[in-house]
Design brief:
Elements (H helix, E strand, L loop, with lengths): L9 H14 L3 E5 L2 H4 L12 H5 L4 H4 L2 H6 L1 H12 L8 H11 L5 E4 L5 H5 L4 E3 L2 E8 L5 E2 L1 H6 L18 E5 L8 H13 L2 E5 L19 E5 L12 E3 L3 H4 L3
Bound molecules: zinc ion.
């Protein structure tokens, strides 16, 4: 079955989603930046010029492994200002997904986001493909520091680069930077869940970023749902297409 035209009316979208959850037991949600925009976290890939006004390099450069190594002070300035959003709170999509997991209706969340909002909403089984700003790891002793610690700037060298208070080692966010591979164990977990799902709901992602976007090929279940404001390259494969605000679609 292929979707004809997208559902644009939020009430109709909610009705369709709630029916899917009522009738299927192995639902996996695969989400991208659009899930967090309603929580006030901008998609850094969207070209709003915001980053270019404030920083000398494009975000893809500032979030690369080589930039982290060569320009640590600028890297951490960008990281603190643009990647960590201390005031962001889960929106209705995060909250409903956590509720559905508790009710046994959702198997897991696979996310491209690094904001930790699914866990903040109460989700337990979350595959964070790109890591999390809530884990910042000492590369020497393995001590882990949260986002608030990075923002508090209590332990830094003279350049403003965070330093491990235990051993003096360098801190690296547990975030997958450009030029770095995704975690094999996270990929394996996400693939296993997607492969065993009977419904896959893809939300808030343009499905253009690989390898994450390639994970959807492991889905062989009954219903593929795509919720996105703009068309995606995989729309033709969807059984249900929803084109409305994702937080509104999860209001049921
Ligand atoms: Zn250390």
């Amino acid at each position: 079955m292929a979707a004809s035209s997208p559902i644009t009316e939020p009430h109709e979208a909610s009705r369709v989603l709630s029916e899917l959850f009522a009738n299927h037991k192995r639902v996996v949600f695969f989400g991208g930046a659009g899930v967090s925009t309603a929580s006030g976290i901008p998609d850094f890939r969207s070209e709003d010029g915001l980053y270019r006004q404030q920083f000398d390099y494009p975000p893809e450069v500032m979030l690369s492994h080589s930039f982290y190594r060569s320009h640590p002070a600028e890297f951490f300035e960008f990281y603190r200002k643009k990647m960590i959003a201390p005031s962001a709170r889960p929106n209705q999509a995060h909250i409903k997904l956590a509720e559905l997991e508790r009710a046994g209706s959702l198997l897991s969340v696979v996310t491209q986001n690094i904001d930790g909002l699914h866990q903040m909403a109460g989700s337990q089984r979350v595959w964070e493909l790109h890591g999390s700003v809530h884990r910042n790891i000492c590369q020497s002793c393995g001590a882990v520091y949260d986002a608030a610690w990075i923002c508090a700037r209590e332990h830094e060298d003279e350049r403003g680069v965070p330093v491990c208070p235990v051993c003096g080692g360098a801190i690296k966010p547990d975030v997958v930077l450009y030029e770095e591979p995704l975690s094999e164990s996270v990929i394996a977990g996400a693939v296993e869940d997607i492969a065993s799902a009977d419904v896959l709901i893809i939300g808030g992602t343009s499905l253009v970023v690989f390898p994450a976007a390639g994970l959807t090929q492991y889905f062989t279940g009954e219903r593929l749902v795509i919720i996105n404001r703009d068309p995606t390259p995989q729309d033709a494969h969807a059984d249900v297409l929803i084109s409305c605000d994702i937080a509104e679609a999860f209001r049921f």
